[in-house]
């Protein structure tokens, strides 16, 4: 690769960020296929390619949003329903420690601050949480599942595929938001998808064209400098 090509690759990686407000502009099916075709070059342990992707648009998307939003709203009213909506794998730790909890808080309050949501404003927080299940208005949802027979490592494989999807989308002028939020509602999601019993929901991506005028999309998250997370060993 020459310097210009390197810059294109780096730009696609570094300009990707989580977009939480989309235009209703549709995405051509050919473009989605193209992105998935490129993304499937992701590595996977012994080339098992354990990913399966459901591309949801149109009427199916509307049905998904309606059912999951209803469940989320019921959960907000009756927190005891949480029992029904356990994730199949714990994405986050049960007990948080520094520095991760600090970064998590900084991220949450940064986002809420931008949206004018103050501490204790539970209704507003719930409304923002609900935006997840409206796909932030993105016209396309990609639901990634894995066969339950596969090991935990297959989630690493799928994660690599997902990152490829987000970068390939970015290169084509599209934006994304990876979403673990849907995992709580996996029984509903898998039912709407018509997925077989042996599949587990791993992650969701909202895909579409970013709304350039929405303040939420100005939220750019920081990263630690390389020295803070890298150990160079020589001798
Ligand atoms: C696996 C995964 C799940 C995520 N789930 C959600 C989610 O449910 N809702 C959301 O708004 N953002 C979600 N995010 C986005 C993160 O908050 C975001 O990646 C992080 O703050 C870094 O910001 P950036 O993506 O803009 O660089 C998720 C990210 C990852 C990698």
Automatic annotation (TrEMBL):
Keywords: Flavoprotein, FMN, Oxidoreductase. The keyword Flavoprotein applies. It comes from the Bacteria. InterPro entries: Nitroreductase, Nitroreductase-like. Its cofactor is FMN. Pfam families: Nitroreductase (PF00881). Residues 13-209 form the Nitroreductase domain. Belongs to the nitroreductase family. This is Nitroreductase domain-containing protein.
